[in-house]
Amino acid sequence: MQDTxxxxxxxxxxxxxxxxxxxxxVEAVRRGISSPIGSLTQLQTIRLGPRSAERNPLIxxxxxxxxxxxxxxxxWDPIPENALQAARRARVLDSSDLDPVxxxxxxxxxxxxxxxxxxxxxxxxxxxxxxxxxxxQAEALREDIRNLKAKHxxxxxxMIWCGSTEIHLEPSTCHQDLDAFEEGLDxxxxxxxxxxLYAYAAIxxxxxxxxxxxxLSADFPALEDLARQKTVPIAxxxxxxxxxxxxxxxxxxxxxxxxxxxxxxSTNILxxxxxxxxxxxxxxRSKEVSKSGVxxxxxxxxxxxxxxxxxxxxxxxxxxxxxxDEKEGWDNIDIxxxxxxxxxxxxxxxxxxxxLAAPLVLDLxxxxxxxxxxxxxxxxxxxxxxxxxxxxxxxxxxxxxLFIQHFRLKNTLRRLGGAEVVTHLxxxxxxx
Length: 432
Description:
The chain has helices spanning 17-30, 40-43, 59-62, 83-90, 95-98, 102-106, 134-151, 178-186, 194-204, 221-229, 243-256, 273-278, 281-292, 294-299, 305-308, 353-373, 402-416; strands at 8-13, 71-76, 156-161, 209-211, 233-236, 260-270, 312-319, 328-336, 342-350, 378-379. The chain folds into two domains: 8-239 and 354-416, NAD(P)-binding Rossmann-like Domain (Rossmann fold), CATH 3.40.50.720; 243-350, Dihydrodipicolinate Reductase, domain 2, CATH 3.30.360.10. The radius of gyration is 22 Å and the shape is globular. It is an alpha/beta fold.
């Protein structure tokens, strides 16, 4: 395993609500004025061996993860505000939480971004690279990565996309292999979006990449193959935070109890930059696809047609500026039970999107760095736990059940740490 004494450079395309909440939170934890609530790597234990052995170390004590003091953060953003200004504008954290780390945040200034308003129509920015050709843009990002590594005197880096949701794109001819993708760079193919340029640059520079948005970013053959060739772990996509998190908890319960579902209506209101971006129908389409695919995979209506084949699933997102980052998700679930009798469940989740996403950024940064040091490469399906739309190999079916995802995540951590994986047979009954 590679040396862990160097700093770990965390690169975020996007210095908005999610990234600044992550950065401010990490610094607050490092100063001992807050706790990393929501972070699996920092607070969760992992069972080793049978329960009777009572070996339950913290994950961070069991595995050689980067220490929080080793993290250094850099970002790109089309808006030139420093992290403190961006955090105040995002209005996620109160001044009482920002003031103690204000000087630290003010020192983080975003590099000019690769940005094209054709892909994020509701966002404008002046802090952009003045380059016309996509090949030039990709090479400029690669140079940024090399310069930032040199600045922080490290060879260790990870990139987590924290930028806005781009318009919905389907894989095109240029996405089928690396030669086609690089030809697409040279001819400025419109099927290649800015997030794909960041993913390409990261992988070419040996930097693990995770996509926190529903964009088509690294989830196509050209970059998946490149990641394997370069021994770079990748994962995605779309952070699993509010409404979808609850779906991946509730749907497995209905399936486990063999309760049928007639319909599931979901709507959201939010007013942050993400809400403004998603007010564009083409950007919303990216999010809709990410959020809508969860139930079919969990419920398997082809196996249980009497229970789930006629399920009507509707997802809506509504931009409502007064709400800011304090998103509200409403779900109405029409279920039926014994003898077909109807019942309803209504969920009103008043959540804070960036508060739920920030610890995911931390966990993904630490776990992708660990995976690379352990020699893992390509798609990391065991990180599906963190995403609405998990990236998997073409022959595999994405797993959306949160509890199965969690079990697989922990067993992979056991394997990476040299411990035995756990199964339901780990505790044999007396006398067996």
